[in-house]
Amino acid sequence: MLTSYAAHFDTPAGYLDFARFGPPSRDAVAATARAMEESARADHTTVDELMRAEETARNTAARLAGTDAAHTALLPNASTGLFHAALGIRRGVVLAARTDFPANHYPWRRAAELGRATPRWLDPEPGGGVTPELVRAALSEDVVAVSVSAVDFRTGFRADLAGLREAIGPDRLLIVDAIQAFGVAEMPWDAADVVVAGGQKWLRAGWATGFAALSDRALESLEPVLTGWTGVQDAGLFDGAEHSPAPDARQWSITNLSPVTAAAFAAALDLVERHTVAAIESAIATRTAELTEAVRVHGGRVLSPADPARRAGILSFTMPDHDPSLVAKALHAEGVTPTVRTDSLRLSPHASTPPEASERVAAALSSLPA
Asked: 299 burial class (0-12, 13-18, 19+ CB within 10 angstroms)?
């Protein structure tokens, strides 16, 4: 366990559902409370002071993504960024995985309905994800972009972003949903043209937080169709005229975001930056390995990639001859919180997860009837 990082959290030892929601730190909770308290005592300085949290959060997100603030925009969630990207493609085919999380489907379906980008669905192998080989086999002249999750939400499969970039070449866009990876997996984000992430999962910033990082290629080729009044040049000039979109990532801004959630996001990102992604990733890998062993020892079938280098912090599994809902009851009895699906269970530890979590999982699985 990364003790210095874990000291910032009050999450129960058996909480193993970070791929669904990451309980925020005391730092993020305190930042939220301070911002609300300041807003309750508002004077002529309050709004401008609170809005500074947005700049802090954007700068930190940019550094973690390996870019700068001009190429970074804060968003209320990852889906908003995916819709910006999908509707920004004027025409052409986009490759996307049929097995991906639905948030990665609907933007492309809506874009197709509007006569813009058309999705072509890829079918990864069970337990796998979108690979360079799968993409190469599907490429054609009309393909203009590839949309992929950095880490698959079902199994933790880690995409080879550098390999995907090499496969599609320099002229097509690589659009990456990083919500299951950002802040907990070191990946070459600069291989992507669009990186979007929400802060409510592994970043542990709470809901209504997120960002997008855009490459120069993305800024040049994507049409900013969702630009709002805060995303234009001279946004503070209220002259009744239509202003041109900002030349940088600000063009993805629709309106002002909450300075309260921005404060929480800034605090959460600061924790990641101070403790480093590498250290957080290493701690998660240790816990995932322990959980994998506990599942296997008790007869579980692991659905996540066997190679630790090909997966992130998600462990998906089944217990043969046991309904997932019954396995979940046994886990709940030991104070363990998993993700429960109709066909499997998912465990997703964080750097604050103690070794005790694996012991609890082992106890729960050993209690199942033979």
From this structure: middle
Q: CA-CA distance, 24 to 265, in Å (whole number)? A: 10
Strand partners, 211: 74, 197
Residue 85 CA to residue 67 CA, distance in Å, equals 18
> For the segment 249-300, what is each residue's pLDDT rounded down to a tens digit?
999 999 999 999 999 999 999 999 999 999 999 999 999 999 999 999 999 9
Residue 358's pLDDT is 98
What is the token pair recorded at 301? 């079938």
Structure tokens at 14: 């058996």
Q: Which of 343, 341, 334, 339 lies closest to 362 in space, CA to CA?
A: 334
Q: What is the torsion angle, in degrees rounded to the nearest 10, for the CA atoms of residue 342, residue 347, residue 348 and residue 352? A: 140
Q: What's the rounded Cα separation, in Å, for the pair 139 and 241? A: 43
Q: How many CB atoms lie within 10 A of CB 180?
A: 28
> How confident is the model at residue 1, as a pLDDT?
64
pLDDT at position 306, please?
87
Q: What is the pTM of this model?
A: 0.96
Residue 176 pairs in a beta bridge with 148, 195
Helix axes 324-333, 356-366, angle to 10 degrees: 130
8 Å CB contact between 112 and 118: yes
DSSP type of residue 246: P
**Residues of the chain where predicted confidence (pLDDT) is lower than 50:** none
